[in-house]
Amino acid sequence: MTKDLPKWAFGALAAAGSVLVASMLLLWVDFDWASARGITLALTEDHWLLLVPIVGAALAAAASTRSPHTRLLAVAAGIVVAGDALFNVASSLVQSDLGTWLVLGGAGILLGSTAPSRAPWRAIGALAVLAGFFAPWASFSLFDVAWHVGFSSLSLLVLWLIPLAGAAGLLSAGTKTAGALGALAGGVVYATVAWVILTAAWQAFGLGAWIALGASTVALAIGALARATTAAPPAEADRAA
To answer: Cβ(33)–Cβ(204) under 8 Å?
Structure first.
């Protein structure tokens, strides 16, 4: 008995692999003042991008022939593009200053302190969010970004939700039954940070990068989550024959 991907998955993965190859011909970076196609970036700057058409072609070929290695190649395709994008976001956070970490850490404390007995922790989390936002020790804090740029940029105007969420977190610490408010405040902080990151990516990434990210995410989801089908055993009559 052999386990394999369901029939529909092979067609979807063949298409995803083909899309990954074709995406290299489109713009991956698209600023107002500069743009570059994926293949250009791969040959001149980010040579790792050559893996995108290579793994895409391999995935398309494997899925078209229903190779037993299709699932493995689907996961590899997801890691090459979608995984790398997440890694770069994580790397940018690791290299961030103390203020950013205080905001993110404080929001995490708010999310994890919904129990009535953890009201003091909600206060600590809220104070961390506020301290990280204003960061008087930093040369250019999130407050500075929101004050100097936020009012002229809709994508950055949402940064003002962070101190509002911090204030709500402090309010939730005033009573033992306001854990839900604290969790909501923490969620608002994370949603705000995610919004800023996504809008920055939207302004920088070209169509090719978004298409490749979508195709690789689909490939990764199918490769990791698609249920295996089991080949039916031969009929008793066939065995006898």
So the answer is: no
Q: What is the pTM of this model?
A: 0.65
Same domain, 190 and 212: no
Residue for token digits 């129990």? 115
- Residue 188 and residue 122 share a domain: yes
Percentage with pLDDT > 90 across the chain: 46
- The per-residue pLDDT for range 130-149, each reduced to its tens digit, is 999 999 998 888 999 889 88
Kindly report the length of the chain: 241
User: Which pair of structure tokens corresponds to residue 211?
Assistant: 């298409």
119-134 vs 161-172: helix axis angle to the nearest 10? 160
Give CA–CA dist 138/166, Å, rounded: 19
Phi, psi at residue 153, to the nearest 5°?
Answer: -135, 115
What span, in angstroms and rounded, lies between the C-alpha atoms of 174 and 160? 22
Is residue 237 in a domain? no
Which is more confident, 159 or 4? 159
Question: Does the pLDDT of residue 240 top 50, yes or no?
Answer: no
Place 39 in a pLDDT band, splitting at 50, 70 and 90: very high
Contact of 22 with 79, CB cutoff 8 Å: no
Residue 61's domain spans which residues? 3-94+205-229
10 Å CB burial of residue 26 (0-12, 13-18, 19+) is: middle
CA angle 170–154–106, rounded 5-degree value: 25
Asked if 64 and 199 count as a contact pair (C-beta separation under 8 A), the reply is: no
Q: How far apart are CA 173 and CA 4, in angstroms?
A: 53
Residue 143: closest CA among 158, 159, 127: 159
